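Title: [Solved] Ferredoxin 3D structure

Original question kept below for reference.
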Amino acid sequence: MKIRYDRDTCIGMFQCVDEWDAFQKNIDAGKADLEGSTEVEEEVFELDVPDGEELDAEFAARACPVDAIELYDDDGEQVV
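Solution (posted by the thread starter after getting help):
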């Protein structure tokens, strides 16, 4: 499972932070950071979701009020 986070779209509500500890508050930027992720495009980050953390990642994606977080299964199909 892979999570994709568009940091440029993020408005800093930090609801993802409350759902999954891979997201951290970056108060200075007013945005969340996705710890351990790789920037694949400008301000777009991806991370392979560790085993056992899929549900937390899904909750984080669903909690985002501006849909800055997408979740994909192992076949590349978008889950959220």
